[in-house]
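Inverse folding, one chain.
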């Protein structure tokens, strides 16, 4: 069985591209190939003009921010412990790590004095996702991968985090690849959208392309069914 076939996608610096599609369409597979959590059997993934297959796998993953659904926080670590994990693994001094953690918590609107010493179980779902985003930004990476980061949140919290994501996007100008099952979310957050189905790239374009210039009946039906929900 082929998980992904013939994907041809170039993401520009500072662009947010959303991957969307039917269940099993290859969205997460495409995302995970960027940081080599999944190795392609054919083809090539290139970051900054270099094939990721030639990169040191640990260095590659630490150079790319990664945010998953429900945060993926370590439950036995405090908020500051989770956010500063990569800094400690890189051998940063304690004071330097603490300074960076405080900067990141402020960035995601979690005041350090209030949240640094809390455990993940003491946080709401939205707060956990903020911590996960802060951790992903630890080394100020150029690229952020996000695998359905808002999918498990209630509508009010999701709307709040969408607003904060767009503010961070405007401020930080990160290159972001975001997987979502929600077309309205993709339209709201993405500069471009990639629709996948059964491992194939069906259409890539802007919101206007999908609404005004669907390339097939499948695209038209997919958009209509999603937006009618």
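Residues assigned per position:
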């Amino acid at each position: 069985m082929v998980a992904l076939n013939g994907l041809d996608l170039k993401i520009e610096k500072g662009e947010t591209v959303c991957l969307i599609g039917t269940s099993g369409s290859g969205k997460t597979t495409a995302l995970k190939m960027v940081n080599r959590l999944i190795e392609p059997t054919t083809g090539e993934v290139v970051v900054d003009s270099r094939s990721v297959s030639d990169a040191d796998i640990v260095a590659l993953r630490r150079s790319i921010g990664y945010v998953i659904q429900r945060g993926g926080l370590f439950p036995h670590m405090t908020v500051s412990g989770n956010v500063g994990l990569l800094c400690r693994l890189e051998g940063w001094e304690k004071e330097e790590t603490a300074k960076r953690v405080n900067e990141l918590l402020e960035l995601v609107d979690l005041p350090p004095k209030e949240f640094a010493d809390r455990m993940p179980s003491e946080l709401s779902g939205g707060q956990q996702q903020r911590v996960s985003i802060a951790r992903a930004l630890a080394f100020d990476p150029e690229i952020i991968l996000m695998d359905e980061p808002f999918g498990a949140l209630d509508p009010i919290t999701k709307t709040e985090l969408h607003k904060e994501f767009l503010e961070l996007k405007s401020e930080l100008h990160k290159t972001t690849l975001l997987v979502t099952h929600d077309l309205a979310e993709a339209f709201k957050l993405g500069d471009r959208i990639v629709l996948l189905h059964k491992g194939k790239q069906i259409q890539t374009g802007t919101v206007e392309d999908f609404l005004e210039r669907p390339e097939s009946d499948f695209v038209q039906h997919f958009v209509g069914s999603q937006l009618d929900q």
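The mean pLDDT is 93. The first strand starts at residue 16 and ends at 21.
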